[in-house]
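Fill-in record for Tn3 family resolvase.
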Amino acid sequence: MTKLDQYVHAATRDNTRRSYQSAIRHFETEWGGFLPATADGVARYLVDHVGLLSINTLRQRLAALAQWHLDQGFPDPTKAPIVRKVFRGIQTLHPAQEKRAKPFQIEQLRLVINWLDQSIESARLTDSHGDVLRHTRNKSMLLLGFWRGFRGDELTRLHVEHVEIVPNEGMICFFPQTKGDRQLKGTRFKAPALSQLCPVTAYTDWIEVSGLTSGAVFRSVNQWGHIGQNRLHEDSLIPLLRSLFTEAKIDSPMLYSAHSLRRGFANWATSNGWDLKMLMEYVGWKNINSAMRYLESVDPFAQHRIESMLTPSEQLVTQL
């Protein structure tokens, strides 16, 4: 790969590149489309996948097709009027409510961490090194993911050499590239040292027991205690977390995903007096709409607000 190719390659995030490659394979191999595509071909592709793919997935497929044509020097068929009209029609006739992960509340965090602490101690007593490693890794990942409001891809892309521990204060996590870092300057996130549920202590415990000195922080651990060379794939986090929550006896574990940690922290912060500006700065949101997607009202039905304004007679009528 030439230097020019290296710079072009680096301009696109790995996740985006993989998802686009998958989209092109689906269009060309599984559906049988031809590249370069025509506007009519793209429109038929959209119509054939109504109900099979979500609106967001169809939008991502259009973006992948557009990028492929631009990269190859062909006109972009996704910008044609027929494609735009078909996509708007699909949105109109097939509206879909966005599915959001259930927030992971701090009470549940305490339960899981208590279970992990007990499991780590039991594994040490039985000399089960693989279980010690796995539970210690999961504890670090859970606490750092919650208190920093990290997405799954951020947790899996964190490297040991990019973490700085400030004794008695906290830790600094550096990412050379993040989703919101359009200028590619790199982003630093700080996590506090806490008296309980401490992400810093959990991280240092994991680094100590794993012996890692460089590379990905969170990696696979097999039953014999062998730590993998590569980072965990972000797609593995959902089954990992659900399995962990099941073992810790958390209700409805299948409702949670990696986004649950960020949503849980966002709701904990707002319920404890953080204003939106403070929360956005801490998590790293640049767009207020992005932040609002993670927040839930503490009074979703406005029951408390309305109830507090009713006169005694009105309250009696309401109860009847």
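KEY FINDING: The chain is about 55% helix and 10% strand.
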